[in-house]
Amino acid sequence: MVFDVARVRGLYVSLSDGWTYLNAGERAQVPERVSSAVSRAFRTAPLQAHTEMSSGSHSRAQVPGGAVGAQITASARLAVADLVGGRPDGVVLGPNRAVLLHTLSTAMSRQLRMGREVVLSRVDDPANIAPWLMACDLYGAQVRWAEADLSTGTLPEWQYGDLVTPDTALVAVAAANAHVGTVTDVAAVAREVHRRSRGWVVVDATAYAPYRVIDIDAWEADVVAVDLAPLGGPEIGALVFRDPTLPAQLKLMDVARGRHATVDVEAEAERRLRALEVGGHAPGLLGGVPAAVDHLANLDDAASGTRRRRLEESLPKAESYMHVLAQHLVHGLQSLRGVHVVGLDGEFDEPFSYDSVERIPRVSFMVAGLDAATVGRRLVANNVIAQVVPLEDSALLDQMGVAEQGGAVCVAMSPHNTAYDVDHLVRVVAGLV
Fold this sequence. Notes:
Elements: H1 5-9, E1 20-21, H2 24-27, H3 32-44, H4 68-84, E2 91-94, H5 97-106, E3 117-121, H6 130-139, E4 142-146, H7 160-163, E5 168-174, H8 186-196, E6 200-204, H9 216-219, E7 223-227, E8 237-241, H10 265-275, H11 283-286, H12 288-297, H13 307-334, E9 339-341, E10 362-367, H14 372-381, E11 384-385, E12 387-389, H15 395-399, E13 408-412, H16 419-430
Parallel strand pairs: 1-11, 3-4, 3-5, 5-6, 6-7
Antiparallel strand pairs: 2-8, 7-8, 9-10, 10-13, 12-13
């Protein structure tokens, strides 16, 4: 079935303002159903939930005293669980994944002590690198690095056979690079980690989530981190533990029990999960989380069944459509002299095929003789919004030599984009070369 982009565009009121938005990785447009859900949640969160009247001799009355905000929070946990294929009781909510990963890293003092090792990768965003570097510096663990193939931006999984040892406490990896778009074989990495060590695998799925179905069990990831904003959701992040009892191993100052109390692993894990949610929640914002996941699940109006089932049907169709746009963009940019597509244009003007490696529909490019900020300003002057990648935001782009050329411009496709949007950007760039 053909992807109905006209119907999808109608779900975004913001698209009527005359701008062409190609910056979903930086600031995704918010669907109307999400903004309405947030508005409704802010109004109703402080209210008291209605108590359902009991009837019949075997009925049990609802316990009074609950607030609507608590129901909103529970719905948000369930939506995130559907998004990643996890369990609601393993979901930790917070302002963004960077804050949550920082809290998690500080709680792993036992695991990251001297004599242990942490494996990080160059394809990750700073959000999944900086907290672990700080924790290793504080607690004494040694840092090892997984390097990317600088010709394509991919992360070869075979190197983890040498990097992971019995002393490995944690491996942090991104499911996909946010700017070049290359996808990591997370399952292969996790299998190698679990075969050689008892370390945790922490996966940043933020760039991956808007395009593909996440399956935490198939990945064998111990923790999945995701931000909801790139999905068109509110500024909310989440950590999902595949095993909800795993947090019982964490050390958190907020968690205490009686001196002679019997340890209940599940109760201990639950307390630690909630202790990771430092500062509590904003139920008004959480009200937009189920709406954002529902939006992804309903991109294909023919999808049916549970929300998880609809995600499995809708996302592949939307991704296929966006890949067509990304390929169209790459062909257009490669036809322009002086434009370099990062990870696709090799040396000696020998371009790689767009399909040469597994990727999400994101493309970064440079214009010879112009820094990224200048290209970005010209795009804005022509009503096109793309992401100018700050040099400190991507270790991969830095290693690929992008910093020496003044940075790169990243184009991140959304389901509402069209071929006209792509042609408009290519025309503007053509005017620069």
